[in-house]
Specification:
The protein is globular. Helix content is about 75%, strand content about 0%. The chain contains seven helices and no strands. It is mainly alpha-helical and about 180 residues long. The two termini are about 30 Å apart.
């Protein structure tokens, strides 16, 4: 348990070596999924005043689906469309590194403090985006940080389009993804 907590803290500290470590550790998939679940629960608790308990359950399910989709979109874009010569990866590596990139999201639990939700979610969103770029750069063995940023942006756009299409086909209001 202590090593798991240590990994979460190192991921939140943007420790490049941690992302290399979980990329190589095939046994870290459950841990990565755990980080995604804990991060989404933290967000749910942070917004419990507006979403209630239902928001925590639905948010966790959506976060797991989004994590999985994001990793596969990133794999396709980063490894198949925009690889660097040394890029060698598989979707599991991206699932693990991207899962740990959710670790700054644990701070979202503090959004329960009245008047703090906006700033907490803004800070953690930026922090998680930076972690995501590091995770993608490490998993795809990129030399270029700019390429990793580009892959993240392209992946975000594709994921947003998919979510909009799903909401329009399945009905319901559109909620902008984070």
């Amino acid at each position: 348990m202590q090593s798991y907590i240590n990994r979460i803290v190192r991921a939140a500290k943007l420790d490049v070596n941690l992302y290399e470590e979980v990329e190589a550790d095939k046994g870290a998939m459950g841990q990565a999924m755990g980080v995604v679940v804990l991060s989404s629960i933290a967000a749910g608790i942070g917004t419990i005043g507006t979403t209630g308990v239902k928001g925590i359950v639905i948010g966790t399910i959506i976060a797991l689906i989004a994590w999985y989709a994001w990793a596969y979109i990133t794999y396709f874009v980063g490894a198949k469309i925009l690889p660097e010569p040394q890029t060698k990866t598989h979707p599991g590596e991206l699932l693990r590194t991207i899962g740990f990139a959710s670790s700054p999201g644990l701070i979202r639990v503090l959004a329960i403090i009245p008047g703090m939700a906006g700033i907490i979610f803004l800070i953690t969103s930026i922090w998680m985006l930076i972690a995501m770029v590091i995770a993608v750069k490490q998993a795809l063995d990129y030399q270029s940080t700019l390429r990793a940023v580009g892959v993240c942006i392209i992946g975000w756009v594709i994921q947003t389009i998919i979510i909009i299409i799903l909401f329009s086909v399945l009905g319901g209001g559109y909620s902008k993804p984070v």
